[in-house]
Amino acid sequence: xxxxxxxxxxxxxxxxxxxxxxxxxxxxxxxxxxxxxxxxxxxxxxxxxxxxxxxxxxxxxxxxxxxxxxxxxxxxxxxxxxxxxxxxxxxxxxxxxxxxxxxxxxxxxxxxxxxxxxxxxxxxxxxxxxxxxxxxxxxxxxxxxxxxxxxxxxxxxxxxxxxxxxxxxxxxxxxxxxxxxxxxxxxxxxxxxxxxxxxxxxxxxxxxxxxxxxxxxxxxxxxxxxxxxxxxxxxxxxxxxxxxxxxxxxxxxxxxxxxxxxxxxxxxxxxxxxxxxxxxxxxxxxxxxxxxxxxxxxxxxxxxxxxxxxxxxxxxxxxx
Length: 320
Prior knowledge:
Layout: H1 2-12, E1 13-15, E2 24-29, E3 32-41, H2 48-65, E4 69-79, H3 85-101, E5 106-113, E6 118-127, E7 143-146, H4 152-161, H5 166-177, H6 181-189, E8 194-197, H7 202-214, E9 216-220, H8 231-236, H9 242-251, E10 255-257, H10 263-269, E11 278-282, H11 284-296, E12 303-310, E13 317-319
Helix pairs in contact: 2-3, 4-5, 7-9, 9-10
């Protein structure tokens, strides 16, 4: 029986939790595989509709990060008994709106009572087995591209503390709502070797995941990275989520700082994101065309932040 299970796994399970990738992939035949992910979290903004949009965009992002095509979604809901049900209705409408933008239906889901609201999606999609873009296949000398600015974790904390102006808040919310669908299409067009989306582990954590899986070292330049307006001032006021601080501590042994970055600079690089952009390894010859086309269809500039090189003494990230 064990031998049968091992044979089944080797043939059908293309990506699972052991791969530390963005979604699971199950092979149907030589031309088709199922790609599936699940994600949900507590509110990070005050407006229920916006929260639903952000949560849905975040869930869809895992499919886009691997080059998949979403097909349908299921809601996951936890909601307090004593809260106005109109809040729940608006959360669900926000999720439905974002799935409509992604051109997929929500076919059902599951809900429970809980002391704190939570919302997200199970997203099922399809992908060709020979077109999977995993996070562990980057190549030496390929460019590293980041498609959205960094700072949503810090700004979400500022929203909770009510210490942010409306302009910067609205910008961060629009960034989190923005689907990664177009950059996903373009990274396939321009032959990306590896990709992931930037979420809870921050830019540093997800980049180290890519480099470690690919047995390479990533070299990036701090001054090439885009940060959301206002986020640097918030860090200076110590408006920083605990997840960001944990990231900085956890990943420090895996990287080298070549430039004299301040402690606040390092926190920015480790900021725990929600519904962040894609982090893509792409051939240098294609990077300009990718960025130009990507930025025609996005409000947020994709930027080249570095490249991959030979593994440097088990340090997976060098920041210059």
